[in-house]
Amino acid sequence: MLHGEMWGMYIGMDLARRQGITQLQVESDLKVLVDMVMGNCKVNERTPPLIRRIQDLNNMN
């Protein structure tokens, strides 16, 4: 379930970015996903590559 939510968040954010949307509010029912994106939680002391991609999209201005 977490993996699917990560992909959904990434694809949605990427699509918004490609369409020129710069302000986007993203929500998730999975607290662990939000914590991972915000940098408050890691898996085995590492940040998964897909989470890094989401973080990169989040940091683009």
Automatic annotation (TrEMBL):
InterPro entries under this entry? Answer: RNaseH_domain, RNaseH_sf
An example molecular function term from Gene Ontology annotations: nucleic acid binding
Q: Where is the RNase H type-1 domain?
A: 3-57
- Tell me the leader sequence span: none
What name does the UniProt record give this protein?
RNase H type-1 domain-containing protein
Q: Which organism is it from?
A: Trifolium pratense
